[in-house]
Design a protein that fits this description.
Blueprint: H1 11-17, H2 30-36, H3 40-51, E1 57-61, E2 67-71, H4 75-84, H5 87-105, H6 110-116, H7 118-127, H8 137-145, H9 157-172, H10 175-186, H11 188-193, H12 195-212
Antiparallel strand pairs: 1-2
Helix pairs in contact: 1-9, 4-5, 5-12
Length: about 220
């Protein structure tokens, strides 16, 4: 079993976000803590404002036949629309992300593609002083550091250094290209059929990232 593999676009990105395996998904967020301190009536009012009218939803069918539904009103919907330009854009981006994850989980060539780069990744990481076998850095980070940080919190320096080197080795051995080639080979029909959607979603995400980088 290969387990989870975190892919990084660059060493800089890796150092900034770290590994998904070190995030504590059960931690209570600051917002949830504030909600817990409200009276029952105020909690209900808060939930209504955040989630809006849950009977007013939009849905899209995913690649596996499941349905993704999102509420169209409330603060969460407004925030998504603000980030992505419209509620419809936000829903489409989330649908595409879900589709890719669904298809990747069932792509038979991905495992062999990762295995084909295992020795090269091991050699690269050892050369940098890290005892990481193959593409198991995510598991190594989980064992070494545990799930110690809240969602959105930056990684500690030691994890950031490991992730940065992992990203550099991924680039050196062309790990990303190998896995993308495998995914494209397995899912060629879906990619072809959804080419326009994919291009549009990429544009939406690019514009959202550019807007987010601008000072308020």
């Amino acid at each position: 079993m290969l387990g989870l593999v975190d892919f990084f676009a660059s060493p800089q990105e890796a150092a900034a976000i770290g590994y998904s395996t070190t995030i504590d998904r059960n931690v209570t967020s600051e917002v949830d803590s504030l909600r817990d301190g409200l009276s029952p009536a105020d909690q209900s009012a808060y939930d209504a404002a955040r989630l809006g009218d849950q009977t007013d939803t939009a849905s899209v069918e995913l690649a596996n036949g499941a349905t993704l539904s999102k509420g169209k009103t409330g603060c969460e919907a407004d925030a998504a629309a603000s980030a992505y330009g419209s509620f419809a854009n936000a829903l489409e981006v989330e649908a595409i992300q879900n589709d890719v994850l669904i298809l990747a989980s069932t792509s038979p060539s991905l495992g062999p593609a990762l295995e084909s780069k295992a020795d090269a990744m091991s050699s690269c990481m050892r050369s940098a002083g890290y005892a990481v076998t193959g593409v198991t850095a995510s598991a190594v980070a989980e064992k070494a550091f545990g799930a110690y940080r809240a969602p959105g919190a930056p990684p500690a320096a030691e994890e950031a250094e490991l992730a940065s080197q992992d990203a550099a080795c991924q680039d050196e051995v062309d790990l990303g290209d190998a896995t993308l080639d495998a995914f494209f080979s397995d899912q060629y029909r879906w990619i072809t059929d959804n080419a326009d959607r994919l291009r549009a979603a990429a544009g939406i995400v690019t514009r959202a990232a550019q807007a987010a980088s601008q000072p308020w």
